[in-house]
Amino acid sequence: MNGIMVKFTKSVFFLLVLILILSVGVVVYSADEDIVRSRMRLGEDIENLDPAHLVRGYDIALVLYSNLLKYKSGSSELVPDAAEEVDVSEDGKVITFKLKEGIQFHKGYGEMTAEDVKFSFERIIDPDQNSEYVADWQTLERVEVTGRYTGKIILKDALASLLVTTIPFTPGSIVSKKAYEEMGNKFATNPIGSGPYYLEKWEPEQVLVLKRFEEYFDEKPNIDKIELYPLVDKNISEMNFDKGDLDVTEISLDSIDRYKAESDVDVHILSALKYGFIGFNHKYPPFDNINVRKALRYAIDVDMIIDGAYNGVPERANAMIAPGILGYWEDAPQYNVNLEKARNLLDEAGYPDGFEVEMVTTSNPLYMNICQIAKENLRKIGVEVNIKIIETSAWYEYVGKESHPIMFFETFSLTLDPGYWVEWFTTDQVGKWNFLKWSNSRYDELADEAAIMMDLEKREEMYIEMQKIMDEEAAIIWLTNGAKAYVSNERVKPVFLGHYNQYRYWEITD
Amino acid sequence: MFKYITRRLIVTLITVLGATIILFIIIQFLPGDPATVILGPRATPEIIEEVRAKMWLDRPVHIQLVRFLYNIVRGDLGTDVLNYMPVSTLVFNALPYTIVLAITSILIASLVGIPLGTYAAAYKNSLPDKITGLLSISMIAIPSFLAGVLFLLFFSVYLDWFPAMGGGKEGDILSQIWHLILPASSLALGWIGYIARIMRASVLEEMTEDYVRTARSKGLTLRKVIFKHVLRGALIPVIAVIGVGFGNLLGGAVITEIIFHRPGLGTLIYNAIQSRNYPIVQGGLIIAVLLYSLVNLLADLSYGFIDPRVRSD
User: Fold this and answer.
1) Which 60-79 residues of chain A touch chain B by CB within 8 A?
2) How many angstroms separate the CA atoms of B8 and B11, rounded?
3) CB B284, CB B269: distance < 8 Å
4) Distance from CA of B70 to the nearest CA of A (A)
5) CA dist B51 to A183, A399, B32, B65, Å?
6) Do B175 and A22 touch (CB under 8 A)?
7) Average model confidence (pLDDT) for chain A?
8) Domains along chain A with CATH numbers
9) How confident is the model over A381-428, as pLDDT tens digits?
10) Per-residue CA distances from B104 to A54, A81, B135, B164, B181 (Å)
11) Is residue A393 within 8 angstroms of chain B, CB to CB?
12) How confident is the model at residue A1, as a pLDDT?
C-alpha cells in the first residue's frame, strides 16, 4: 500500500516541477513592444478584403487602401488622400482628379496611376463582379484616363452621397490593377493597396496582422504592427484587456464605470450612429390605427429604457438622424410618458381595455432587456406584451416576410450620409429591409430627390421633412442613436474618425 | 481479430455516412437564408441569387446531397463562398488544435482521475476516499465553460500565470504548450471527477472477483494484485467512457475554444453557423463525425487488446 503512496508523491512532485518549468517559460516569452493589439471591430472576423466585396472590416480597408479623398481625423472635413486635387463640376456630373506622383502599392506592385483608379471604380459597376457596392456608384458612367496621373469620373447623374461616403470609404478604395489581374479570386485574401499598412498575415478566426508599409506616401504611422483579434464576446475581450493582452477593445456599456475608476485606462464613449426603435408593423391591426400608435408612444418610457438597458450612457433620440449628420432635426418633439393621454387615445381607437400583443426581437441581451422594460410600460395602459425571441441569423428573413406585430431593433451602424439612414423606410423596401411595412409616397419622393440634391441646405430640409412625416404619423418610437464604449491603455492613443465608429489605426501613437 | 476489425470498420463507415446525411438535412432546415445572412443588408437580389447559386442552394436538397457526397469521396470539401478559400484548408488548419486540446484534456483527466479512483477504491470508506468522492462530484458538477471562465479570471487575469488567448506562436512549441494548459485543464476538470468515480466503482467491482481472492490467498500484496490483475479489467469501462466522452469533449471544446480564443474546429464551426457559411459547417462537421467515429473505433479495438474476452463475443 505504501508503494501506491510513494508513486503518488512522485507524480505530484513531477507535476509541480513541470509547472515550475513552464512558469519560467512565460517570463522568457515577453511581448514585442512595437505592436498594438486590438479586438476586431464588432468582434467579427473578416471574410473578404477585396473592396468590391468587403462587408466586414471597413476599418481595415481604411488602412490597406488609399482613396482619392479622406476625412481629416476627428472631423467631417474632407482632405486629399491619394489625389493631389479633386474638382467637381458645377452640375456635379464630372469629377476631375489628379493623383500624387510616386504612390507605391504594397509588396512591389508598382506606382499608382489613373488606370488603377479607373479599374477600381469601374469594376464595382461591372455586372459580372456583382459588387455589394453597386448602389454607391449607381450613377457612374465611366472613368476617363487623361494622363498617367489624371482622369475624369463621368457620372450619368449627380449623386450627393458620392463625396460623403463613396469616394472616402470602402467603395472608393483604389486597388492595384496589376495585382488584381494577376490574382483574381485570391485578391480577396491577398489585398494590394497603397495605405499605411499592408496585410502581413491572416489566420481565420484567430488574428489579422497589419504591418507598417515603409514606402507609404504620406506620414508614416508610429506603430510597426497592428494585431486584430476577432473576439466574439465583449466580456472575454475585457478580460484580455485587463490582463494586458489587448491594448484597445470595445467594452460593454455596463463596464464603463469600472474602467473610469482605473487611472491608467482611457475610456472613450462614441456615438454609435445607428437607431434603436420600437417599430410597429403598419399592416398588422391594431397598429394600422394611428391612435393606437400614438397611445403607445405616450406609454413607452424612453428615459427608463436608456437608464435601465443602456446604463444611462447614450443620449435620447427624438428623431432618426443623429446629431452631426446632415439632416439632424434639432427641434423634434419629445414624447414623455403621459398615461392619461395614452389611455384616452386607446379609448378613441376602440380599445378601452387594451389588447394582447406579441413583441419580437433577437437574442441580443440588450434587446431582451429593452423589451422587458417596454412590456412593463405597456402593461400600465392595459396592453399585454408577450416577448418572442428570434435567433439573430433568422431575424432578417423573419421580419422581412412574416407578419410580426411590434418589435424592438437597432439598425447596423450607418454611414455619414443621411441617404443611408432614410432608405430603411421607403416603400420599395417593404418585404425586404422596411420592417415597419410603412409606406408614404411623399417620403419616397423626398428620399429620391434628396439623394441627388447637391445644395446642402435644401438637402438638409428634405431630410428633416421626411422625419416630420414619420413623426406626424407616429410611424415609430425612437429610443436612441446608441453609444459605443472603448478602452485603451496608456501606450496607445486611438484617434476616432468623427461620427464613424472606426479606429484610425495609422494614427495610433505611442 | 481481422474479422472483428473489418466488421467494426464497416459499422464505422455506415455511421459516418448516416451522420453526414442527417447533418446535411438538419442544416438545410436551419432558419435564415445563408445568402442573406452572409451578405447583410446591402446585397441586391442579384447578388443574393449569385451566392445562392454558388452554394447550390437553388437546387433540390437531394441533388445537393448527392453532389456533396460525391465531392467528399473525391476529397473535396468545397469552397468558402465569400473568400474562395478551400474548406479543407480551413478545416485541416484548425483540426490539429482541436485534437491536441482534446487529447491533452483526456490525458490530464486520465492521469489524475485513474490514480485518484484507484486510490479511493484501495482505501474504501476512509477519509481520503470521502474527500476524493466529494471533490469528484464537485468537478463533475462544474460545466467546462464555467471552469474556463473561472480559470481565465484566476490563473490568467488575476495571477497572470498563463496567457489568456490564442493557440501560441507558430513553430514555438513552448508557447503552444503554455497556451494549452488552461483550456485543456478546464475541459478536463469534469472528466477527472467522472473518471475517478468510474475507476473507483470499477476497481471495487473487480476486487470482488474470485481471482482476486485467489491471488490474495496466495500471498500477493494488495498493490501487486491491483497493478497486475485488477487494473487490466477495471480500465475497460473507463476506456469505453473516454471513447464516448470524446464526442462530449468536442462539444465542450467549442465553448472552451471561444473562451480562450483558440483556433480549432469548434471555433470554425461555431462562427460558420453564425454566418450560415454552409460549406464550412458541412465540411467541419463531417470531419468532426469522422474523428468521433474513429476514436470510438479505437476505443472498441482497444478493449480487445486489454481483455481478450471482448474479441471472442
Assistant:
1) none
2) 5
3) yes
4) 25
5) 21, 21, 14, 18
6) no
7) 85
8) 33-62+195-263+495-510 (3.40.190.10), 66-182 (3.90.76.10), 276-481 (3.10.105.10)
9) 999 999 999 887 778 778 877 678 878 887 766 777 888 889 889 998
10) 38, 52, 21, 18, 8
11) yes
12) 42
- Asked if A339 contacts A354 with a C-beta cutoff of 8 angstroms, the reply is no
Which of 402-421 (A) contact B at CB < 8 A? 412
Residues of B in Cβ contact (< 8 Å) with A189: 83-85
Give the domain ranges of chain B: 87-311
Q: Which of B27, B82, B216 to mutate to test binding with chain A, by most A CBs within 10 Å of its CB?
A: B82
| Residue of chain B whose Cα is closest to the Cα of A134 | B44
Distance CA A301, CA A316 (A): 11
pLDDT band for A492, please (50, 70, 90 cuts): confident
Percent of chain A with pLDDT over 70: 89
Pairing of strands A356-362, A406-410: parallel
Whole-angstrom distance, CA of residue B52 vs CA of residue B47: 9
Q: How far apart are CA A58 and CA A80, in angstroms?
A: 19
Q: Over the stretch A158-210, which tens digit does the pLDDT of each residue have?
A: 888 898 889 988 999 999 999 999 998 889 999 999 999 999 999 888 889 99
| Torsion angle defined by CA atoms of residues A38, A40, A46 and A52, in that order, rounded to the nearest 10 degrees | -100
What pLDDT digit, counting tens, does each position of A233-263 carry? 888 899 889 988 888 888 988 899 999 999 8
Amino acid, single-letter form, for residue A308: G
Closest CA–CA distance from residue B43 to any residue of chain A (Å): 5
The dihedral through the CA atoms of B235, B290, B144, B112 has a sign that is: positive
**Distance, in angstroms, between A130 CA and closest chain B CA?**
6
The partner residues of A271 in beta bridges, in order of sequence, read A483
Confidence band for A323, pLDDT divided at 50, 70 and 90? confident
Nearest residue of A to residue B120 by CA position?
Answer: A4
* Structure confidence at residue A26 (pLDDT): 36
What distance in Å separates residue A23's CA from the closest CA in chain B?
A: 7
Torsions phi, psi for A276 (to 5 deg): -100, 135
pLDDT class for A135, splitting at 50, 70, 90? Answer: confident
Task: Identify the residue with better confidence: A124 or B169.
Answer: A124
What does the alpha-carbon distance between residue B265 and residue B102 come to, in Å, rounded to a whole number?
A: 11
Distance from CA of A167 to the nearest CA of B (A): 17
Give the chain B residue whose CA is nearest to the CA of A234: B259
Predicted-complex ipTM score = 0.72
pLDDT for position A180: 95
- CATH class belonging to B87-311: mainly alpha
Q: Do B165 and A8 touch (CB under 8 A)?
A: no
Alpha carbon distance B263, B265 (integer Å): 7
* 3-state SS string for chain B: CHHHHHHHHHHHHHHHHHHHHHHHHHHHCCCCCHHHHHHHHHCCHHHHHHHHHHCCCCCCHHHHHHHHHHHHHCCCCCECCCCCCEHHHHHHHHHHHHHHHHHHHHHHHHHHHHHHHHHHHHCCCCHHHHHHHHHHHHHHHCCHHHHHHHHHHHHHHHCCCCCCCCCCCCCCHHHHHHHHHHHHHHHHHHHHHHHHHHHHHHHHHHHCCHHHHHHHHCCCCHHHHHHHHHHHHHHHHHHHHHHHHHHHHHHHHHHHHHHCCCCCHHHHHHHHHHCCCHHHHHHHHHHHHHHHHHHHHHHHHHHHHHCHHHHCC
Q: Comparing C-alpha atoms, which of B172, B267, B83 is closest to residue A233? A: B267
Cell numbers for B95, please give them: 483540426
Measured between beta carbons, the chain A residues lying within 8 angstroms of B111 are 11
Record: contact B84-A188, CB cut-off 8 A: yes
